[in-house]
Design a protein that fits this description.
Elements (H helix, E strand, L loop, with lengths): L8 H8 L4 H7 L4 H8 L1 H16 L6 E8 L9 E10 L2 E10 L16 E6 L2 E6 L4 E6 L4 E4 L12 E13 L2 E14 L4 E10 L4 E12 L14 E4 L2 E6 L7 E6 L5 E5 L10 E11 L3 E9 L5 E8 L8 E10 L5 E7 L4 E6 L2 E6 L5 E3 L5 E6 L14 E3 L1
Antiparallel strand pairs: 1-2, 1-24, 2-3, 4-5, 5-6, 6-7, 7-25, 8-9, 9-10, 10-11, 12-13, 13-14, 14-15, 16-17, 17-18, 18-19, 20-21, 21-22, 22-23
Helix pairs in contact: 1-3
Protein name: F-box domain-containing protein
Pfam families: F-box (PF00646), FBA_1 (PF07734)
InterPro entries: F-box-assoc_dom_typ1, F-box-assoc_interact_dom, F-box-like_dom_sf, F-box_dom, SCF_F-box_component
Amino acid sequence: MVSIPELADDLVQLILLKLSVKLLIRFRSVSKSWKDIISNNAFIYEQHSNNSLALSEEKGDHTQSFLAFHLHLKPDVDKYFSRLSISQTEGMFSSRIDEVFHLPYISCPTSKFFDCPLIYPAGLGIYCLFEFSTNRAALWNPTVKELKELPSSPFKVEDSTEQYRYGFAHVFFKDGVFSYKVGKMKIRWDKGNKVYWLTIDLYSSFEDSWKQLKDCRRLERGGGTCTNQSWIFSSAILNDTFHCLNWLSREDPHIITFDMSSEEFGRFEVPDFLKHDSRYNLGLSLLTEFDENFLSLLLYWENNVEEIYIDVWVMSKYGIATSWTKQSTTGPFINIDSIEMLGMSKRAGVLFLDVDKGLSFCRLGSPKLWHLDYEKFYQIVENRESLVSFNGTSDGLKKL
């Protein structure tokens, strides 16, 4: 009987790199050598990079996957995440919920309506969850169903003038090792000087500890655009840097940058006309990313008959203010009492909006809305499958 020769590991790796994450998870049980290849950090990073490139080149089917956080209207009811798919056939959209996640991390009902977790992409298919009222943060990979709760931060809110308003995280890959940093931003109102002070609590996996950058950024307030909106949704991680839209001053709106490696601040300019055109409401606008390679601004504005429009602007050259380019205008939206932007998917070609009827989406450049007949959504982010595991990094790992 002729035996079939085994394939060389290099050839096996080339074949495995072309497979989906779901298949790779199943193929880890084929043999020990396959499991070793699939579990190797360098392989995991290369597979994710290849998959991201294929997505940016719009290869594959026309079904897009998202993670959505469902916010119940009753404060004592459990909240949960879902994996939502949106597909397009002959110009018509359809949606479905593929999976529901009731995480132990957020399973405790709360008596406060807005005391709910926030989710932010950290890169490489990892998401960071924050519960500011309990001072907790965790990293989550929904694909491999792992959650890693971080050590508690020793820094607390000092008084009523200080409160947490935002969070961010970033996963690095260097020298064959995955590491991460997690930041919690809080602002303090300085009544005497009439400014906000920004403080960041920063966790590093290399040091396995928290540190605090106290009053590290002064934020001026002024002009007529200040609203009660928080910064919950308006940020992007790109080039190992956190970017946050600062619209507190009508005279000086800009993007705050924080280099996650050097831990240094900087700023990028927004399109200059935003300082002068009163039609645009930056408090209702959104900073996000476009095609995972560019910063993008989704700008909310109304005309003189209260029709709502959303302009998409892209910074085509990173950090260069003159490179902001308008991509599209979506609208008009009429007979709508309220509208809030939740995000954009360039690949799906849609904007996600929270309108009177709940979560809706529309095609970029079109005023037609599709309403999703689900419970109240609070956040929605694109889902990226990943093999990155926290296994062995901490006793805080939970297999869900």
